[in-house]
Amino acid sequence: MTLLADERSTEPLQQDSCAADVKTGLRAAILAKFRNVAAAQGKPLQPLTDNLVLLESGLDSLCFAIVVASLEDELGYDPFTEAEDVYFPVTFGDFVAFYERNR
Fold it and tell me: Is residue 54 part of a domain?
């Protein structure tokens, strides 16, 4: 296990906790983007749980296109164009996992 220095502390951090922080940050960014797009488009958004089917989220295809384009601007990558396999996430959890896998 590799140890990394935390910029805010002199104590080393375990790499696993850094990976968890990155995943948590990515999930938070995706949650925020879904909520912001829903609000901007005037769409009622269902609670974003891992098992929520995306087609039942309250967002339409335009909203999903905006989410993906905005995430690409924010994160610097689009896993839908960079992935070798064609894959369309079915649930919100699948969507988050797809972004995590294709960083």
Answer: yes
